[in-house]
């Protein structure tokens, strides 16, 4: 899926598996289903990453920077 590698850090904000490897996907899903602490850690890390990089404040700042570059 486009954009996945930009959003996910394997083992930190998600688990990445190679395309076309259903056993790897099944293993990753089983790992997450069995390990509450890992799920919690990944969910917290993912929230912080997305909020810190793609929140409304970052979006506004990027739009402002674009407008300033156009105005110069």
- Got a strand count? 0
Using only CA atoms, what is the Rg?
Answer: 17 Å
Largest sheet, in brief, is: none
Gap between N and C termini: 37 Å
Helix content: over 70%
Q: How many individual helices?
A: 4
What order do the helices and strands follow?
Answer: HHHH
Mean pLDDT level:
90
Task: Give the strand content.
Answer: under 5%
Low-pLDDT residue intervals, each spanning 5 or more residues: none
Q: Outline, from the CA principal axes?
A: elongated
Structural class: mainly alpha
Architecture overview:
- The longest helix is centred in the middle third of the chain and has 19 residues.
- The protein has about 70 residues and is mainly α.
- α3 runs parallel beside α4.
- It is elongated and about 55 Å long.
- The protein is built from four helices and no strands.
- The N and C termini lie far apart (about 35 Å).
- About 70% of the residues lie in helices and about 0% in strands.
Q: Layout of helices and strands, plus pairs?
A:
Layout: H1 4-7, H2 22-34, H3 36-54, H4 56-71
Summarize the structure.
It is built from four helices and no strands. It is mostly helical and 72 residues long.
Task: For this entry, give a set of tags.
mainly alpha; elongated; 72 residues
């Amino acid at each position: 899926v486009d954009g996945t590698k930009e959003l996910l850090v394997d083992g930190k904000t998600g688990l990445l598996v190679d395309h076309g490897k259903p056993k790897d996907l099944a293993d990753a899903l089983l790992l997450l289903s069995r390990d509450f602490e890992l799920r919690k850690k990944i969910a917290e890390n993912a929230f912080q990453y997305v909020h810190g990089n793609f929140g409304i404040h970052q979006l506004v700042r990027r739009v402002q920077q674009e407008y300033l570059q156009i105005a110069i």
